[in-house]
Structure formats: C-alpha cells, structure tokens
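Same chain as my last thread, 393 residues:
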Amino acid sequence: MARSVRTLPPAAWTQREDLAALVSALGPDSVRWVGGAVRDTLLGTLVSDVDAATIHRPERVMELLAKVGIRAVPTGIDHGTITAIPPGGPVEITTLRRDVSTDGRRATVAFADNWREDAERRDFTINALYADPRTLAISDYFNGLADLEAHRIRFIGDARQRIREDHLRILRYYRFQARFGSELDEEAEDACAELAPALKGLSRERVSTELLNLLALPDPATTVGRMERRGVLAMILPEADPGGVPALAALAATEKQQGTAPNPLRRLAALLPKNAEVAEQVAARLRLSGAQRKRLVVAAARTDRSLDPRALAYRLGREEAIDRLLLAGEDISSLLGWEIPQLPLKGGEIVARGIMAGPEVARIMKEIERRWIAEGFPDRRRVQAILEDQLAR
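reply #2:
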C-alpha cells in the first residue's frame, strides 16, 4: 500500500484554476498528478509539463472534459493518453495501465484501476511519484523520495527487466543521471552496459532525440564519459572521436565561461572527428533535419588555426561561426550584438566602369570582398576606393 510521506510544496501550477476545473470534471478521487511535475516541484526546479494519471478510460476522460468545455485531443488514445487543453496550458492524462507484452521497442498495454500497478510499469523510482490534487499528499511506492534526495537514479524493480521492456530506457537512464544524479546505482550501470547492443534495434529518431536531449543538459561530459567507457556510446555513435569526451568537457566549460547557452548539435560535433564527411554520415543515420545537418557539418569541419570571428560569421553565418569559435575555445564577444553587413557594392557598378559582364566582374567583386573583409568591413566610401585601386591594376 502506498505511503503518503510528504506533500508537494507550494507551486504556481498546483494553484491553477483551470487545473482545479479539470480535477473537478474527472473527480478528485479519480485523478493524480504524476511524473515530472511532481519530481521537479520537489526539486524546486521549473515545471514545464503537467501530467496526470486517472482510473477513467480515455473515452470517458474526453466525455467528462467535454461536459465542462475543456477541449481534449486523442494524442495517444490507443495507449490510454489524451491531451487536455485548458487555458493555462496542456495536460497529458493517461489511464492507469499495466504491460501485457513488450519487445524492447513497443509495449502492449491493458488498462488498470490500481495505482501501484500503474507505478510498477514506469521506468525510474523518481518518476513514479503521485500527488493527490486536493491535499498534494505524495504516494511513493518504490522509495522514490529517498532516491530523489540522494540524487540517485534507480530503476523500478529489476533493472535488466525494465530495459528489456524498453531498450530506450538505457539512454533515458543516462539522461536522467546527467540531469539529477550524483550517486551511481551499480545495478543500473551494469545493466545498461550489458544490454547496450539492444540500442541498435531502436528507431533512429528515438535515439537521436534522447542523445540530443542528453547533450543539451548543462554539463553532460561526465555521463558521456561513462557511456564511452562502458561501451554504450559506441552503440549509438560509433564515429565518436577518441578525444571527443575531453573536447565535450572543454566546450561545456567554454560555453559556461562565455555565458553561452548549450547547443546539442555543437556538442555532438565536439564528440566527432574534425571531418565533414563523417558528420554527414552521422546526420543521415540520426535522421537530423536539413538545418540540423548543415549546422553539424559546418561545426565538424572546424580547424585548429586561429579564426577572425567577424570574417567567419560573414562567410558561415552567426550561429555557425559561434559554434566554430567555441569549439576552438576562442572568444565570441565581438559577435554579440554585431549585425553581419552586406558588401556595399553591386556588380553593375563595375560594369558601368567599362568591364564586360561575366567572369572578370565576378573576379573583381571577389577580390574587393576579400579586401573589405580583411580590413574589417569598412564603409562604402572605402569600398569605392578599393574598387578604384582594383580597376587601376
């Protein structure tokens, strides 16, 4: 039986009037807050998503919400999930479930009416904390509160069994460990290493999402280093450079020092060799978008030589230049607030000076642009002087 050992501290989201209306519609005894909102409120961190569990079947949830005018979308109705859209923001509501069968990639579930049974199918103890919407009393079935206080990420029940149910839990374990953990759970570490080859059977999109989410955390290098040593990283990123983890750690330190937000693609580039072709292969395998692929490839094509920040930004783009500079450990302050200029000269002006349109105009424009960049992007008056000099040659 669950032990209500504690209540949620005051939080803005628990006092939302629209959530009170949602609870009233479903019945206070039929719904509980669960997962990240409960966990993050206990940690005192920002709550971005609110999830709820209920004994009602999804069709009944939609019917009850419709009666009080709360819109609901059947985002995952086959697995018991609907998304309610009250004025204050969406809430995912999932019917209590139990696993019938799993194959490591997907699960067949049956609806349940027992809170502990629902908790047993969740991944980590810190994610199986439920809160009564009226009293905010917490139901903790697997000592998740103690794990949260110890900053320990522990699987519910047998770690290997939980991973066999869903292989993605290996990557989720490392992401949660990097975000919340400090005390290692040896059983979890060993299970992830032993079952890591199963990651090869997952969809590329799921792996990509988890990897980028991990790399977006403030300082993932220590965790990624453990993944490398235990053979997990090689299963999802075989192209990783032997010096990739130290490069990732150095990049994270540089970002922090210069007050720059982490970027997972920049950090992925740090893990890879300085090779655009390798980055192309990684982008294809991870099914990155066109914009993501471009940014990764440009970052991975970095060199070790010192770079002029503004010249680099003019040629590559601001974000791409910032990536290159940070990866090289160089200062980006000269790009902050700087607008990338346009060359104040048109090809027609060269034609008007008697040069036939074609390759010669292009050559002259290119040389003028080179000198303009080298001189630090001077104004049009100086560009006109450069043009005169170039024509005189």
